[in-house]
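Researcher: Structure prediction, please.
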Amino acid sequence: MRYAREVRGQNLYAIDPRLHSVLGRIDGAAHARFAPALADFGAWVGDTVDREAEYTDRFGRPTLETYDLDGATVNRVRYNPAWQAVAREAYMKGVVGLNYGPEPAPFATTFAMGYLLSQADVSLHCPVTMTGAVAYVLDRHGPPELRARYLADLVRRDGRALTGGTWATELHGGSDVGGSTTIARARNDHVRLAGLKWFVSNVDGGLALATARPEGAPPGTAGLGLYLVPMTLDDGTPNALRIRRLKDKLGTCGIATGEVDLVDAWSLEVAPPPQGFKLMMKALEISRIHNAVASVGLQRRAFLEAVSYASHRQAFGQTITAYPMLQDELLAILVELDADLVLAFEAARAFDREQQDPAETTWLRLVTALAKYRTAENANRACRSAIEIIGGNGYTYDMATPRLLRDAQVTTVWEGPANIQALEVLRLLSPRYGGFAAFTARIEAVLARLPDALAGAAQTVAGALEDCRAAVKLIAAEPTLAARHARRLMALMADTLAAALALDDAAAGLAAGDRRMAIVAELLLERHFTPAPRRGIVRDENAGHRHFEALIGYDPIV
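Model: Predicted structure follows.
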């Protein structure tokens, strides 16, 4: 593959053979069916959305109009017309609606749309994520009357779809959702909510899911109910809530994030305690997978910006991709990107499988936590590295790279930072859930079917799995170690799973006569599991250097 000088203007789906391969392996028939929709989406994202994202970030950020001229609350967020236009079109193209209707797409398809969308505008992907989460909860877990009344407005594709929000974070609580002080007071046919939601993205979306505690309910998450809050009531009047202000954020500046005072706000119960928190976690589950695919999308765009620039940049008499140190930097982004793509879509695959088999729930939760953590960390590294590879130009807003770096930072904190994911991993490893058995079974199934050509790599991953086993055993024997080492354990497990899945892809490539993913997997293992002295100065050129052009170009290596 030869890279154009500019990323903008290209079809981000068409130039991504790895995405085609991953989706084809998950469900070949579904991929063939929805490939035209993905191709159309990729072309639109690579041009129209990318231009809008740059303009909005630099010149057209949203502003808040809380009151009108007479002092009445209006809660109006003003967006520039370009952002409004692409926001409407995203839903018209089915980024949420494709999952519903008589012949719905698998969720992996719309997760792929999120991956493509985040290569241009994470700010736009944010409301898409929450709209999808609200629609999913109403469709699969909501009361029939709420589903009949509201779902169609979230999944419609005529340009008039409502968008969603998930309101859980409060000033005093942060990730401690169980500390919620928002009160739910039952009325004859509805519920009134009173409290302050502190970090509300897509603050003016049409429908939000909000956690609140009914009067007399116990403390903690067991006392939380879940409620559907419309911004506008059936008679056209604003609901009884007030957007206090918009947050001034580091990144994702296109989407309005604010603080919402619920002042006796009208709502309908989705689930009473103790089911309310559990259903909100179902919404966050889909959001965390979207967070993972967004992180991989940011890695992909960072790689495209770096390799496109470097492939056309002349310095000291030759194209800079000829220089070994720069090759190493590009390969470092590429190797983690290729592995994270497979890891994120392992979570997407688990989500679709869990819809049919509840026995998959533990694996879904565990792989989602591991993917959310690893992909977010690598997104930040990749976006920073892209700026360094490009140099001074990459530090300026002539290119997308500064915006990518600022937007990447949010992926580490959206839907729970790394420490919260580590606590989720610990919870799932407990005897109640048996998560390590699911983890072991998934990796051992991969290792058992690897060909002899990958025997050495398989042995390395088997050794890493034993390290995971020893760490889990140690923590189980000495629980006081868990709080200190949970994040380290999560990192080890995430790297081990990513390596195993990369080898699984490598085996499929070898069966088709292509060594490319085998080389990527080899480089990945060297980065994460080779002893430190071996990663120092060595005489031998590695396979990454020998096959550099084919690796970065996604060309087959026979």
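Model: The chain has a mean pLDDT of 95.
Researcher: Thanks, that helps.
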